[in-house]
Design brief:
The protein contains 3 helices and 2 strands; from the N terminus they run αααββ. Helix content is 51%, strand content 5%. The protein is mainly α.
Length: 112
C-alpha cells in the first residue's frame, strides 16, 4: 500500500515538474525566440508547439494517466505491513499519557 501511494505521489510530482514547469519555460523561450526585434515573427513555423508530435504527446499523456490509474485501482488489493500498532494501556496511569515532549490527555484529540 505504501509503495503504491508513494509511486502515485512521486509520479504526479515528477509529471508536474517535467510536463508543467519545464515545458512552460521551454514554451516561453521558444515564443521569445520566434518574435524578431523588427516586429516580424515566425511563430507559425518556429513557435512553441509547432514541432511537437501529436502522437508522441498523446501516448505520453495517456500512458501517464494509465499508469497512475492502474496503481490507484490496485490499492484495494494491496496489504498494509506498517502503520499503527496496538499500544498497551496502563490502567494505573488514568487519563494522562506521556507523549514525545510532554504529558497529554488521552480523552482529547490525537497524539503524534
Amino acid at each position: 500500500e505504501y509503495q503504491l501511494v508513494t509511486f502515485i505521489l512521486m509520479f504526479k510530482g515528477a509529471q508536474f515538474l517535467s510536463s508543467g514547469v519545464v515545458m512552460a519555460c521551454v514554451a516561453a523561450v521558444k515564443y521569445y525566440m520566434c518574435v524578431k526585434p523588427d516586429g516580424h515573427h515566425t511563430c507559425d513555423t518556429e513557435g512553441p508547439g509547432v514541432s511537437q508530435d501529436l502522437v508522441t504527446s498523446s501516448v505520453d499523456f495517456f500512458g501517464s494517466c494509465f499508469l497512475v490509474w492502474v496503481a490507484f485501482l490496485l490499492l484495494p488489493c494491496s496489504r498494509s505491513f506498517g502503520g499503527t500498532r496496538e499500544l498497551v494501556e496502563d490502567p494505573e496511569s488514568g487519563a494522562v499519557g506521556s507523549g514525545c515532549c510532554e504529558d497529554y490527555d488521552k480523552n482529547r484529540g490525537g497524539r503524534l
